[in-house]
Amino acid sequence: MKRITFLLSFILTLAACGGGGGSNAVSSGGCDGSCQTSSPQRLEIADVQQVIAQAVAEAQAQKIGATVAVVDRVGNVLAVFRMSNAGTAVAINSLRNTGTGLDGLAVVPSTLAAIAKAVTGAYLSSEGNAFSTRTASQIVQQHFNPGELGQPGGPLFGVQFSSLPCSDFNTSYPTDGMAGPKRSPLGLSADPGGFPLYKNGTVVGGVGVIADGSYSLDLDITVPEHGVDELIAMAAAAGFDAPATRRADMITVGGKTLRFTDVEIGDTSTGGRNTLSYAAASAAGSLVAVPAYTAGTILAGARFAQPESGYAPATEPAFAGLDAFRLVIDDGSPNGAPKYPPIAGTDGGLSAAEVTELLKDGIAVANRTRAQIRLPLSSQMRGSVVVVDTNGVVLGVLRTRDAPVFGTDVALQKARTAMFFSSAGAGAAIQAAGSVNYLAPNGTAGPTAVQLNGYAQAMSSVVGAHALDGTYAYGARSVGNLARPFFPDGIDGTQFGPLSKPLAQWSPFSTGLQLDLDYERIIQHVLFVLGAGPDVTHGPGTTGCAGPPAAASFHTTVPAPLGDGLQIFAGGVPIYRGGTLIGGIGVSGDGIDQDDMVAFLGLYNAGQALGSLSNAPPARRIDTVNIQGQSLRYVECPQAPFLDSSEQNPCDGK
Asked: Could you write out the three-class secondary structure of 275-301?
């Protein structure tokens, strides 16, 4: 009887994972987070060739040249192909003519734009949700939905500046091997033309296309677009399509349906318009070498949730029964060596045992939590949990299975952001950050430097004299409230937040303090790819985005705890022992309210178990402070959040 039960279970698991190829997954769509571990998939060289050939065929049908990038699920660039009639540079264009930040820069290599779009399609997607760069465009703007006045900012407002080239968390190929997650040259992309790629119902990578010369976004989702980038990318993904039952247009957030694409190409199960072999497509262009990304060859991808990908099951006894995963070093062992095992804080605050408990309790809450942006409905949340000390050092990382890859870096950003803004030295660090000088569109030095101490002064003016001296505890959500171009968020015509640009100068390419801290590092990386200087520091063991400028022409000193950049949407809280700040915990997964709850309750439960740490004392939380007649949010927990309980308001009184 036991054998019959096992065989039945095994057969059902295989059925849920689809069969044959990507097109079969479109009709089945049955994967729920387990397919990649039960039946590991990857993009083979022939698959990459097929994607490129399909892109070239559609570009020729559209009578335009294109640059195409293909990546695996952890961001390894498997190939970049540029047609001979394609442009070599793109202009970043918010369509709002702000003239600030990255907006207007016209010397960005097209290869970097295509890579960023491919990485975004792969990183935002999972077996439970398929998001495209059009989805990203919808959820990072000043209103959700874009163009709807009086609405709050997008739920992932600011996520575009994650997985940055200077990240001390993400790595690069070939220096660090295939194990991920890898950095993205421009962060995550909101320019339609990037899609995830699936095989047997599970994500295996992404494809990104740039053909129109403009790295942009969609300001009005009520008017369907038919852009060539998205047309070509959709055709490129044929046969590796996202399962129809997992696409963003099957998912709602706050009662609003997300967007996946404005185009459809014929019958994607048969390859759309593809009539070319890879050999024939090769006559239209060539593979391109991109420094730090690809040598101009085609690679096969890494299998996700296997050590070669940098993600594998957590085998430590402390995490038994959690179905947890960790970041690993691919050392040849069956499950790899832990890359971020729990360690004690470098500041003498948290012990390794406390970090272990925080990770355990965070994952335990996530395992009970109902996901917001994952199908089928009533799926459990999948996400990443990261703990840092007051120096911003990573003390531990733990994940659920099938959590989206973008959340790994974002969870760290959130932990660091909540900790940094709650620290006694935040104001002084921002005061000492120096200045940033935006480049002119042609890449030459711009005329005016922006002094970053203005953000600290604005915080004192809006929040009060003790805004950044450790008096108040900020959640990542609180920081996000202060970084919106409307304050309060979503109320048109009001003053901009103290960490934001004014609306006339604001765009997703120029958010305020978030972008200004990292602007020079992004530019330095672009110049490196153009052959005009050294690369930024990145990867484990580096200062990443933090530290003094890398060259005499740069003037921004990023606060040391912000090694992978600042993040400005919900899902992180500071950690206290009594009234003393000792670290931060960040979460990123299937819904921002869920992220908030897992961070907040995970910390609370760890404190109850150990009796030695806690959330911020209630009287110190920024939501107790009257700010120009308004109250900021500290955390916000979802309604009916649990799969195994009817409990409501689980965060109250904690």
From this structure: CCCHHHHHCCEEECEECCCEECCCCCC
Helical (H) or strand (E) element with 235: helix 228-236
Phi-psi region of 35 (alpha: psi -120 to 50; beta: other; left: phi over 0): alpha
The stretch 513-535 carries a mean pLDDT of: 96
Q: Work out whether strand 108-109 and strand 294-295 pair parallel, antiparallel, or are unpaired.
A: unpaired
Question: Quick check: 166 and 521 in contact, CB under 8 A?
Answer: yes
**What is the DSSP annotation of 8-55?**
HHHHHHHHHT--SSHHHHHHH----S-HHHHS-----HHHHHHHHHHH
- Helix, strand or coil for residue 169? coil
CA distance 342 to 324: 14
Residue 13 has pLDDT above 90, yes or no: no
DSSP element (H, E) containing 208: strand 202-210
Q: SS3 sequence, 553-621?
A: CCCECECCCCCCCCCCCCCEEEEEECCEEEEEEEEECCCHHHHHHHHHHHHHHHHHHHCCCECCCHHHE
Instruction: Summarize the chain as % helix, strand, coil (round to 5).
Output: 30, 20, 50
pLDDT in tens, 384-400: 999 999 999 999 999 99
- What is the total residue count of the chain? 654
Point out which residues pair with 370 in neighbouring strands.
380
DSSP 8-class letter at 402: T
What's the rounded Cα separation, in Å, for the pair 525 and 534?
A: 8
Best CA proximity match to 382, nearest among 364, 395, 399, 358: 399
Percentage of the chain exceeding pLDDT 70: 94
Q: Tell me: the pLDDT tens digits for 203-247?
A: 999 999 999 999 999 999 989 998 999 999 999 999 999 999 999
Residue with tokens 């609306």: 503
What is the three-state SS of 237-259? CCCCCCCHHHEHHHCEECCEECC
User: pLDDT-derived band of residue 598, with 50, 70 and 90 as boundaries?
Assistant: very high
Strands 89-92 and 214-215: parallel
Q: Average of pLDDT values for 102-110?
A: 97
CA 43 from chain centre, in angstroms, equals 22
Q: Does 14 have pLDDT greater than 70?
A: no
Domains of the chain: residue spans and CATH = 22-140+190-295 (3.30.450.150)
